[in-house]
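Lab notes, practical 5.
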Amino acid sequence: MYTTFIRIKAMSISQEIKSQLAKLLATEDLVVEHRQVQTAQFNVHTRVLTLPIWDKASSVVYDLLVGHEVGHALFTPDVDWRVDRKISPSLVNIVEDARIEKLMKRKYPGLSKTFYRGYAELADEDFFSIADEDISGMNLADRVNLRFKIGNYVDIPIQQGKEMEIVNMISTAETFEDVLIAAEELYKFCKQEQENQNVPVNGNQGASESKEEGDSPEQTPPSEGGSSDEEPQQQSDEQSEVTSEDSGNNPGETSEEIESKTADSLADNLKDLITEDAQENIYVEIPKLNLDTVVADVHEVYEYTSEWFKKHLEQFNADRVSFFNIYEKEDGEYAKFKKQAQKEVNYLVKEFECRKAADAYSRSGVSRTGVLDTGKLHTYRYNEDLFKKVTTIADGKNHGLIFVLDWSGSMAKVLQDTVKQLFNLVWFCKKVNIPFEVYAFTNEWQKRIDGNQYLDLPSHYEKKEGLMKVSSEFAMVNILSGRLKGRDLEKQMINVWRIASYFSSNWGTHYSVPDRLSLSGTPLNESLITLHQIIPQFKKDNSVQKVQCIILTDGEACGLGYHLEIQRHWESKPFMGSRQIPSWRGILRDRKLGRTYTFDGMHSGFTKTMLTHLKESFPDTNLIGIRVLEGRDANYFINNNSEDEIESQKVKESYRKNKSFTLKNTGYDAYFGIASSALSSDTDFEVREDATKGQIKSAFIKSLRGKKTNKKVLSEFISLVA
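Output from the prediction step:
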């Protein structure tokens, strides 16, 4: 079983490498798919290049076939030439093959070697079925096909005169119109050649192809013309059907087709490179979600939450003689934390200013003004630099913060401590005027209202085949925002504090929390999809150039499904259903970027693919992951996300020593693992208002030595935004 998975994964990777080659060659938004098809196809309307799963092909042959099909994608026009010209399609294809391969080698000189080696291999393996054939006895169409494909290794006789004239027309063809003219001349020559030899048009024996070309009703039967050695191999049923259909003949009519045995042989032999039972890839795309339905705006969340707490406070005191504030304990703890946190926030602000100044200095440049510096005139004997200078500092980028919080049931124990770290960032952003948004991903907001009644939920997008599935229950709840006014922001932070205290205390409070803000599962991957709309909207609304996106979670997300039409035999019409995206064979496709991404597994590997795609979609966004770990979860997480055993051991040692670690190559720019016990550690240092850079540095080093891992995370954020 394991070996099978490895084989499938290797095949998938190889296929996608070739897909990337195709898109790079095409230099456009070309959709490349590997499917269970017999031959490569390019749809000029949809711009979809479909490649067979040539898993038996060598790398050089694979590259040849890909380069050839891309040539059609780039240079073969979408025109119906059959209306005005009566030419065998096979001949047009032969001439067009020569033209597009010439143009591809001209556009990409490196492909010349690929075509040379690829066709050499095909010739050695006798893919054209000419080993036992007298090439000089073949019709000109076959000899032309061989000359332009394997003429470098096999002597292909071409007679001087009309034959060479046609060959030169083909070799010099630059436009598709040139191709049609040359193909027409080739067609006429082959017809005349065949009439002179008195053989069937197709050169085949068989009842279905027994009619000869010509106007005379009296034709020589195929059995009387030519020897048995000249008969081509029997066509497959599928090919015979195509030939018969293309001819469009009624009984008594003659065929206009001129066939190429070598072209047919190549097509047939290429099919042998395909494994019939190969697993077909599943291609999916990111849906464009409606932010109006998937995002609960902070003003709506604030009003709902505030009204909830107000209503339940009134209900609690309705029958009481004296007023009792059921939130007094938690609100007092919030006020205490806020006061203590100001020291840490001030530290962050000072470090930010220091780093920002250092960065500005590193980007500064000095230039001469052209104005004499009179203070240096006395040094003219030994100093040539007598001009005044000016220092210019390049403008830095405006930054913004998006914080995505896991609102799942497993976060309950650490939610309070997580909120503390979140509030530090919020207060920091407020002090240095950095716009910010805080979202909690959940499956509860959309479906639950007071009384546990269910809403009639609209879809967040138009469902189409191939789109990734996002449940209507999913929501990004905008719990905090820099758009809230001062007093409203303060009140909402208290609301969030109350909710976090409720869950972290194991539901041991005097009050309950809003139904729609109950904890749920872990729709992390759905949140990454939503960020494709949230990030550009955030940048536009706040005029920021660079976004810091922090994603905090304590668990793995599940894979996602995709939409497809399903036809059940007892129903007359198909319906839009869904299936799970398969491991190893699921491929995320982005038409805008012209990229594909293979899903590597169903859990962390799936999310890594989503993160990689998100990062490449928004290169000016820093993706920072924070993973809260408990007990044995740490070993599993480290083993699952390390590159090798050596890295795994180093990370585990760091975790044992510092209760934290940093991982790379996970899809994030930086991925922090933090022990849940470390989140609650309080700071033990103070920074004066007039502290120097050296004093700040010393305090920071001391805090790290004291295993205050929250500082490490916050400092990393500061270094990014500075």
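Observations recorded by the TA: The chain is about 45% helix and 15% strand. Residues 1-13, 203-255, 391-396 have pLDDT under 50 and may be disordered.
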